[in-house]
Sequence to fold (279 residues):
Amino acid sequence: MAALLTCETDPLTGKTTLALVSDSELFAASFDQYAQFLNENQVVKTGSNAEMVKRLGENIKNAAQRWYTYIGEPNYLKDYKWEYNLVDDPQINAWCLPGGKIVVYTGILPVTENEDALATVMGHEVAHALLNHGKQRVSVGFLQELGLMAAGLAASLAGADENTQTLFLAALGIGATVGVALPFSRENESEADHYGLILMAIAGYNPEESVPFWGRMAAQGSRTPEFLSTHPDPTTRIKDLRDKSIPEAKRKAAKLHLDPLKKESILKAKKIAAEINNQ
Ligand SMILES: [Zn+2]
Fold:
């Protein structure tokens, strides 16, 4: 029988957090909502930006697997069903639902400018999912408020009205998408910054790019609800990155480094392969 009232210790942070919802219930509901979102929005399927989002997603996924394997939790991600989609929408936004369902909006690309900066964003969003920030919030209060039973989350949502589904998405931190602002706490945001940066560095991206990137984001002001609403002010954030996250990301990356599937690496590999074939 499943225990409904539980806590779990996060293997990355070592923190004990509330987990009233099981992963299987949460993931099922999340996968459902993701499919619905893709149906209702314009997915960009071809072109270099769509390819970049997929390539980046694969790199981040591999880095996450390598990291959990390294800390002795090789099965932690076994129920993840990673998916990465670029959606044509001018919002400066991106998110990752529980279980690895990622959306990047085309509106964020002019701000990221390069793949390392987009890796900063994707690392941050995936870190929210890996650290179960949405799950904690769903656990803390939403289930009671919504009258949903933890054990029947997916079933409850399937038949729920639009309002209930909207609140569920808001609890997962993607509320800006559906018009309900419910940002993550500042503590969750700082955690997502820190662990996300380590993740992108393990994936082979340059953590130094996070500094100019967050500077560009700060210049966007209130147009970036997920990223700025509860975040530390830009000066504090950049100081934290420089003093703490970047050095730690470099140390971890040196230990767990992955060859990134960057465009240059792929082109180089193809060139070498062609040269070998011509010999
Ligand atoms: Zn965030």
The mean pLDDT is 82.
